[in-house]
Request: fold
Amino acid sequence: MRIGAPFAVSAWLLPVVAVAGSPAMMHYSVGAKLDPAHGALSASVTITVPAAQVTSPMVFVLSDSATISSIDATPRAEVAVSSEEGLYGHYQKITIRAAAPGHAGLRIRLRYAGPLGPSGDPPMDRISPDDMELNLDSLWIPICAGFGTKFTWDAEIRGVGSDLEVVAPGRVARSRGRLLLSCNAGSPDIAFVAMRGLRRAEGSGFEFYARDLASQEARDFLRQGAAAVKFLEAWFGEMPVRPMRVVMVQRERAGGYSRPGYIVVVDNGPSPERSVGKFIAHEFAHEWWSTGASDSEDRWLSETLAEYVALRYVESAFGTETRDTFLASMRDSARDAGPVLGRGRRSDTELYQKGPLLLMALEERIGRERLDRLLAGLAPKPPQNTAEFLQALSQVAGDERAQEFERSLRR
Ligand SMILES: [Zn+2]
Reply:
């Protein structure tokens, strides 16, 4: 069910809003009841926005299958809900206009309930009594539009069978039949996997979870993951978030994703070890490189950089010939690609194929040593937008090279 006409909810005025978690980040307090057998959810979510992050409007998106029963904002704010279609498929858009943005924090409390089913075709999420994977695609909690805003959380979730193993970033605990999740690292969504029969192995530098740790796929991920972490830490410094957890799931939809301290990989059956290596190196690279909202042109700062870094890992682990095989197929795919910059949101071809080739060309132009130094210098505080990247590039390689690289991104 969706709400047809926008409506407004106002609340009383309070002087100051206490901020939980990091003072610089939004914090979510989630109370949720899942009914995996029937694919349903009811939730109460309180979002605390620190003063510095209050914008007017603030826009959140939530699954359009949820029926919202109340939205309260403190201090008083105007709230509108509309049904939309776009980057996230069908969803509800919740627009909150604070009276005095930037001066006081904002607290938003939402209550909603409704069906919670897998979304996408084939879906990236699952919900059943013995196998659950919730993430951004589920839109099971309201997420900041653009998907680039990180927040901390504590969540108390009922309905996840006590015989399921749960993997999530941060702290995972159980108490009186409830699943307790909390995370201070910050992430653009609350993602977790709950599966019957998951087993845990200590990877070198990460925890690894899979149903069958002895399978060829699991052993490849463990081996390549350990080598990739070693390679990346030598370049960018220590992994920013610990503990780091990698969980292997089975589903029809290929492709995994990474969040701070958490990576989901898919067991798609046997695949060449070099592909496993490139894949896991890309996902681990996101632990450093994950800026740029997904609906903006700055997305390349996340996907293009991660893919370039993954190619460098492939070169180091499997040799230049193997790397060149990947490059050749990327050149093929990138032939008809549009510009990386200047046209808003980009497709996979520009982000994963053309972009990394442009970074390879930049490497040739300015020398590997300078490009490596540039990335090593940026890694602790990755650029939030393209201008920041270009500025750092011009400091390392000069204005002319930076302008030349920018032109290549816009071509
Ligand atoms: Zn990626």
Remarks:
- The two ends are 44 Å apart (CA to CA).
- Helices lie at 216-236, 273-285, 300-318, 320-334, 348-366, 368-378, 386-397, 399-410.
- The longest strand covers residues 26-35.
- The chain is about 30% helix and 30% strand.
